[in-house]
Design goal:
The complex is a heterodimer of chains A (212) and B (940). Chain A is mainly alpha-helical. Chain A has 8 helices and 4 strands; from the N terminus they run αβαβααααααββ. Chain A folds into 2 domains: 153 residues, no CATH class; 44 residues, Orthogonal Bundle (Arc Repressor Mutant, subunit A). Helices cover 58% and strands 8% of the residues of chain A. A two-stranded parallel sheet of chain A has the order 1-2. A two-stranded antiparallel ribbon of chain A has the order 3-4. In chain A, 31% of the residues are buried. The longest helix of chain B has 19 residues. Chain B is α/β, with parallel strands linked by helices. The chains are: A mainly alpha (212), B alpha/beta (940).
């Protein structure tokens, strides 16, 4: 098994179990035990995951990827110590971000639900292959990536959260806007498109949106 | 040693180790308690080691030995190690043993001795504290080195910031104590050291004082460029002298000169001497003992076209005993020597092999998991930090654990037997050993399960040593808690483990060799010489390849006579079937079972074979520069060689001849060195000087790369007044046709860096050292056999150093200049090397594929193809199934990396032994008690 086998589902499962940080250790780049250079895949995945965490208001520093060889015990210990120190400083997941428990659960749940979709987006639209970590980081902080992120992921995350909220109880545009911290017009746009798709309906009597 | 090829009797003296190998587990508690410190030989005596120690961290077996510095051995005192060893492995009663063995062939691999700069005072080695050899520095850089990977200098144990490397120390010298040859590896290892130094300390200033930079190996030119482009790295072409040491700072002053600035003196924190390669220290003894001849330098004298063949039948060599050799070449010759031993001894192959028989496997699929946990003390390694008895009691409380016990050393033979017994007695169907890293011992314990009639994939290893006791030596309580956590996670995973089948595939005993040049023919003959049928496929009408255009070598070999002889042997060998005028129309199958269709002068043939060798050769670049193709007196180096061989008057009577090196390579389009051209040009120059000593010959070069023994020929050519003039890539020579006193000439203009002015040479003939380029058929072969190419379009081996003649695709091998330009003798080494690897496959009746491979749940597969795109091995394809088009894994091709799993949107493809259920249960169990379960239910 290669580090590239590590999946978003595994990372999310750890966070959902209440872990405050997730560390992934992989072989050094270009020193693959297979021929597949799968550690580039995990690099791509981790950078994407960090972006999504950031977007959801979770501190991306809670997810760390480091490349090292089995002969570098010292480095491993050093890096883990540093990571533990850093996660301690960040505090418990959610609390450190000033998020209440329900808010945290909503974020993690909406992300988890989207994993199959994100896997597709990753292989179809974000399959980039660079040589160095710097080039990957540059891509993930580029405008091009931001645009792709907005088009492909940000909307879906918002939708995913709205659907989860409506599953609990019907809500008005204003209520949803307050919970998610998005403007009422953004929420309206999402709700309009989902009611066209037949996913939500407007309950006249309650003056609120509910699942269709 | 006595006897002859096929029947040697060798007597070995086996020094006492004072350690019982069958008992020592390598726990190193004895090392910790040993009171004797002495300079660590493996770490260049920079740091200290103990009298009892493991030689180095990759030693095999990874156990201790006691050397002469031991107090008991010297003065009959101490014996502390005996007292602390919990496995009674120390045995001071051991004495030297004589062992007699009978062998049919002998391979000598004594390696080399690094040049000792102490023989020349001027290097100040041993005098100035901060002058070190590259070997010293190599150890300093290493994580297991004297400073545990920190770069420190000896005088003050501080980080050196400004470091100089001095090249060619002990090499390319005709002064006493030095070696006349080029040591061939120093330029590149220095670049490696520079890159690693910059990795350690981004701001380090690295200066390399060099002669020619010889980056002649595959991908070395790019490596050189990478080192050169790093900030703070200077490559300075200059001879140097080490002048003085600053008495206070112990910094070292180096004097050098450049054409621009003249003589300079500069101070460095540390100076590294890039020492060359000497013959092994005891080379004379070796030669006398075995009756083999040496060459003038003290290395082994070998057959000029077979660097592994010594002067004595039955004796082969591998590695640097043939002369300066890098790692890939050493590995190639090791495999090649093996193949030649195989040819000699093929009639008794397998005589000493014993088949292992396991009891039949018990079907436990219907049973509830019954887990047994064995917690290892590892002597004191785990036991003194982790509370093992408490951990064992904890294990008994975990779900499905029906048995738990502690063991002193789980890896000891008696402990393995204990595990086998307990599996049977307690009816265990899952076993966990909580001990060390699975890297070392997982295979051993899997075998233990097989011995007990359990499927080996029911084994799970919890690492509570490297991941726990070793990193938390001062936190005993927390370490015990962590050991429990780790084991709890393993138990959770073990509950979901499934029995897996390894697949045995029959191996077709024939080989296909693609390409009938020297590489293909040599390889084919070596395989056939070991009793296997070989199909040799050549696209041309005749065998011979590029060698048909080569007439002699620098060593004076008559290449055409050699080739004629080789072709004769191929046609006479009853097991070699030659197909000429051949094209391959289809190639299918996998390791052990390939099917290839060949259209040739024999018609269409379907060949079934177990192994494939790619030896399709290379082409020569057709220059577009320097009037080539426009003026018939401009030719390539190979064409010049042909004209010399023909005795063309125009060439041999020329007054003046200019050779231009690096035509069509070492540039942006082809960023590699063609390796053979410098020696080719020197060879042609020497030949011409022999025929017409009056001829003015100029070789215009960037770096002369006559590596290894070829340096002597370079020196000979310079001595015979062949003029070597350096030019630079950005200011190449200009060539124009002109008339001079009624004689039509080619005028070559270039800057002369030594004289600092423009130089004009009127030449009658110009020879261009045209690049060796990938052959036209390379792409076709790439697609047919699904093998990879490097950035320059040459075939890409599985691993440059460790698997130099194999493709990543199993059962497919490569050799010759299709891999990279190389000399005839190097081609022969590689051809034998490839044959050796082919034999390791073909000598087996079956190949076994791992059970940990991917599998698709067709009900979940949505036919998106994401897994197919992710698979480098081409192991997944769409197939029509009763449920429609679905992804299907070929279990033979899948190598179990699992990348596809993380791409599949529906989780339809799962890596067995590491499936989501197994991994997620382990993640869940990381959180103790019910807390996790609540959270999972709440969130997912």
């Amino acid at each position: 098994m290669c580090t590239g086998r590590v999946d978003l589902a595994h990372i999310l499962r750890a966070f959902s179990n209440g872990m405050d940080g997730v560390f992934i250790g992989g072989c050094r780049l270009n020193e693959c035990n297979y021929i597949t250079q799968g550690n580039y895949h995990v690099l791509n995945k981790v950078l994407l995951c960090r972006k999504i965490m950031e977007h959801l208001g979770l501190n991306p520093e809670r997810l760390r990827l480091e490349f090292m060889s089995s002969g570098e015990g010292n480095l491993f210990a050093e890096v883990v110590d540093d990571f533990v120190r850093q996660v301690r400083e960040l505090g418990p997941l959610g609390q450190g971000e000033g998020m209440d428990e329900n808010g945290l659960k909503l974020k993690l749940k909406s992300f988890t639900k989207l994993i199959p979709y994100i896997r597709l987006v990753e292989s179809e639209r974000l399959r980039v292959r660079f040589k160095t970590i710097e080039e990957y980081e540059e891509f993930y902080s580029s405008e091009e990536f931001d645009r792709l992120f907005r088009e492909l992921i940000a909307d879906k995350l918002a939708m995913s959260q709205i659907m989860l909220l409506l599953r609990e109880r019907p809500l008005s545009t204003g209520e949803i806007s307050r919970i998610l911290g998005l403007t009422p017009s953004e929420i309206s746009a999402y709700l309009n498109s989902s009611s066209k798709q037949g996913l939500v309906r407007y309950d006249e009597s309650e003056k609120r949106f509910a699942l269709a | 040693m006595e006897g002859e090829a096929g029947n040697f009797k060798v007597t070995l003296t086996r020094k006492p180790r004072y350690i019982d190998e069958s008992k020592c587990t390598g726990c190193t508690v004895c090392v910790e308690y040993c009171p004797v410190k002495y300079p660590d030989q493996f770490n260049q005596e920079i740091s200290q080691n103990k009298a009892v120690h493991i030689y180095y961290s990759q030693a095999i077996p990874l156990i201790t030995y006691i050397d002469e510095s031991c107090l008991y051995l010297k003065e009959k005192k101490c014996r502390i190690c005996e007292a602390v060893c919990k496995n009674d492995a120390i045995d001071f009663n051991q004495t030297a043993e004589k062992v007699e063995i009978k062998v049919g062939a002998i391979v000598l691999s004594p390696g080399f001795e690094p040049f000792d700069p102490k023989v020349r005072d001027e290097y100040r080695y041993g005098k100035f504290a901060n002058v070190v050899t590259s070997m010293d520095y190599e150890r300093v850089l290493c994580a297991t080195g004297p400073y545990e990977g920190e770069i420190l200098r000896a005088s003050d144990l501080k980080h050196p910031h400004k470091i100089a490397w001095i090249q060619c120390v002990g090499s390319r010298q005709v002064t006493p104590g030095g070696n006349s040859y080029c040591s061939a590896v120093c330029c590149t290892y220095t670049q490696k050291q520079v890159i690693l130094t910059k990795d350690h300390d981004n701001a380090a200033e690295c200066t390399i004082f060099h002669n020619d930079i010889r980056s002649y190996g595959k991908d070395f030119e790019r490596f050189y460029a990478r080192a050169e482009k790093l900030p703070g790295v200077r490559f300075i072409r200059s001879y140097v002298s080490i002048v003085k040491e600053n008495p206070e700072t112990k910094n070292v002053t180096v004097r050098y000169s450049t054409t621009d600035d003249g003589v300079n003196e500069e101070e460095f924190d540390m100076v590294v001497l890039s020492v060359g390669l000497n013959p092994p220290a005891d080379f004379r003894d070796l030669a006398d003992k075995f009756g083999i001849e040496l060459n003038a330098h003290g290395f082994c004298k070998t057959n000029p076209v077979n660097p592994m063949e010594t002067s004595r039948p039955g004796f082969f060599i591998s590695g640097a005993f043939q002369g300066p050799t890098d790692i890939p070449e050493s590995v190639v010759t090791a495999s090649g020597a093996g193949s030649q031993c195989g040819e000699l001894l093929t009639y008794r192959r397998g005589d000493l092999a014993i088949e292992r028989i396991y009891p039949p496997e018990r079907d436990v699929s219907g049973e509830e998991p019954r887990i047994g946990v064995f917690v290892c003390h590892c002597g004191a390694n785990i036991g003194r930090i982790v509370n093992v008895p408490e951990t064992v009691e904890y294990c008994k409380t975990l779900p499905n654990v029906v048995y738990a016990q502690e063991q002193l050393f789980s890896c000891a033979t008696n402990s393995a037997e204990e595990i086998t017994d307990m599996i049977k007695e307690k009816g265990l169907n899952r076993v966990i050993v909580a001990a060390c890293s699975p890297r070392t011992l997982e295979m051993l314990f899997r075998d233990t399960l097989r011995e007990a009639g359990l499927n080996q994939y029911y084994y799970e290893m919890a690492n509570i040593r490297e991941h726990c006791s070793w990193v938390h030596p001062k936190e005993k309580e927390e370490a015990t808690q962590k050991a429990k956590d780790i084991i709890r996670m393993s138990v959770a995973r073990a509950r979901h483990l499934e029995p897996l089948r390894e697949i045995d595939l029959p191996v077709n005993k024939a080989a296909l060799v693609v390409g009938g040049g020297i590489a293909g023919m040599t390889c084919a003959l070596s395989i056939a010489g070991q009793g296997h049928e070989v199909h040799l496929v050549e696209k041309d009408t005749d065998l011979g390849g590029t060698a048909r255009r080569i007439h002699d070598t620098l060593e004076g070999l008559d290449v055409q006579a050699y080739l004629h002889d080789l072709i004769g042997k191929v046609y006479r060998h009853p097991l070699v079937h030659v197909y000429t005028d051949a094209t391959i129309t289809e190639a299918t199958g996998y390791v052990g079972n390939f099917v290839t269709r060949v259209k040739s002068e024999r018609g269409v043939t379907e060949i079934k074979h177990g192994a494939t060798v790619i030896a399709v050769g290379a082409d020569v670049y057709t220059p577009t520069e320097y009037l080539y193709g426009e003026n018939d007196r401009v030719m390539t180096h190979l064409e010049l060689e042909e004209q010399i061989a023909k005795g063309d008057e125009k060439v041999i009577n020329a007054e003046s001849l200019v050779m231009i090196q690096c035509v069509g390579c070492r540039n942006e389009d082809r960023n590699y060195c063609s390796r053979i051209c410098c020696s080719e040009s020197v060879k042609n120059a020497l030949k011409l000087k022999e025929i017409n000593p009056q001829m003015d010959i100029y070789i215009l070069f960037r770096d002369i790369r006559t590596y290894g023994y070829y340096e002597d020929y370079y020196r000979e050519a310079a001595g015979k007044d062949v003029k070597f003039i350096r030019y630079e890539q950005h200011d190449k020579p200009q060539v124009e046709a002109a008339e001079e006193g009624g004689r039509s000439i080619l005028r070559v203009t270039l800057p002369d860096y030594v004289l600092g002015k423009k130089l004009e040479i009127d030449a009658d003939i110009i020879a261009l050292a045209a690049a060796v380029i990938p052959s036209a058929g390379t792409r076709e072969v790439e697609n047919l056999f699904k093998v990879g190419l490097n950035l320059d379009g040459f075939f890409k081996e599985a691993h440059a150093k460790l698997r130099p003649v194999e493709f990543a695709a199993e059962g497919v091998y490569l050799c010759g200049i299709a891999h990279y330009p190389k000399l005839i003798k190097e081609t022969v080494s590689q051809a034998y090397g490839a044959a050796g690897r082919v034999l390791t496959l073909l000598s087996h009746d079956l190949v076994t594929a791992s059970g940990s491979i991917c599998e698709v749940d067709e009900n979940k597969c949505v036919s998106c193809g994401a897994c197919i795109a992710a698979c480098t091995y081409g192991a997944i394809e769409f197939r029509e199934t009763p449920l429609g088009k679905k992804a299907v894994v070929n279990p033979v091709l899948c190598k179990g990396d699992g990348l596809c799993n993380a791409k599949c949107p529906t989780g339809a493809i799962q890596l067995k032994h590491f499936n989501d259920e197994e991994l997620l249960s382990q993640i869940d169990a990381a959180v103790p008690g019910k807390k996790a379960i609540q959270q999972i239910e709440a969130v997912v």
